[in-house]
Design brief:
The protein has two domains: 287 residues, Aminopeptidase (3-Layer(aba) Sandwich), CATH 3.40.630.10; 125 residues, Alpha-Beta Plaits (2-Layer Sandwich). Helix 1 runs antiparallel to helix 10. A hairpin with a 2-residue loop joins strand 4 and strand 5. The protein is of the alpha/beta class. The longest helix has 22 residues. Bound molecules: zinc ion. The site of zinc ion (ZN) has 5 residues, from helix 4.
Length: 434
Amino acid sequence: MSGLENRLIALRETIDAAKDDLVALTQSLIQLPTVNPPGDGYLAICELLDARLSKRGFNIERVRATGALGDSDQYPRWNIIARHEGRHSGECVHFNSHTDVVDTGDGWTVDPFAGVVKDDKVYGRGACDMKGGLAASIIAAEAFIEIFPNYAGAIEISGTCDEESGGFGGVAYLAEKGWFNPERVQHVIIPEPLNKDRICLGHRGVLWTEVETFGHIAHGSMPFLGDCAVRHMGAVVSAFEENLFPELAKKHTEMPVVPDGARQSTLNINSIHGGQNEPEHGYTGLPSALVPDRCRMVLDRRFLMEESLEDVRSELHDVLEAVSEKRDTFRYELREMFSVLPTMTDKNAPVVEAVAAAIRSEVGCEPDYVVSPGTYDQKHIDRIGRLKNCIAYGPGILDLAHQPDEYVGIEDMIDSAKVMAQSLVTLLKINEGS
Ligand SMILES: [Zn+2]
């Protein structure tokens, strides 16, 4: 057996032997309730990661996204970037995990912030999305550094905030400041819970818009003296039902989006508000009789590689114009809130090929290539950082994310840590002489 083969075996054994450490690290991450919104405990989780990684020879930078969306003195947006330099210069592999978790909600049978271990699983809010993935990437990087101390290149591990609320105080801020510049980082793996045998290449596009219809206020007993903005909005919704939804259902994509239902264009009516404001909680009186003079609808349109953002915009505009032609007093405004282009990393990109080969050798199956129905921080790395060589790969079952009794399987974390470590071997070009 060659020296390299022996060291690859040692790499696996080191990760197997780190099982208790991996579980304890996952538990300690879960025990910091970094709930977002509002964005609690970001400094505390950076301190935990700092203490862990600075001991292992990583250089630590903590970056507060001062002035970013959501940042305040009460809830500062802290991020951490830990970088380990190899003995020689070379490429950099970056593992990016978000440190925030969503609110617990109801229905838990265990304490969501205790880090309960039961039946070979770690339970807790953020266990699968994505503190388990963060812990696995740390164990993988540490094992790799132990077995290949003379490697060339660099390894980075970042813990970034606010992914659950758009990532503006996290990866977007860091990308704007040059942290994901392709000159300093060449490969990015985001350990989101996609399952240990799946490589997520990217995500669909997003267009958030707000449509407002206008009417004329009048006494509710004489609606004919007014003009009801809610009825105008009703006509818009009817036009969606008759024309737009059936059209969207016909648009299928070659992108391997999971689940299957998302392999087409989709539109969600996120909210509709018309007429008077809802009464304050505790108000027991009746509403006053008024014809609503304005109605607002928020739309969340998800689109495909095969569609352009321009097409998606004009499709909505055309529906509204068609309604306008049929209704004399119809007046509306269409405002764009936010858009993200679809992104899909090439299957032949180095990071994809390295992780695919590692899944074959460490998990023992063919990788599944998928695309996410919703966006995640890859959007900022792609658009702001201009770094295309990026995927999501990590342990955990996506469907458990944001659910009560969220958990991550310990064996899954071990296996995915082996895949990550083996990917480092490939991407950092380890050979017999390393
Ligand atoms: Zn996540």
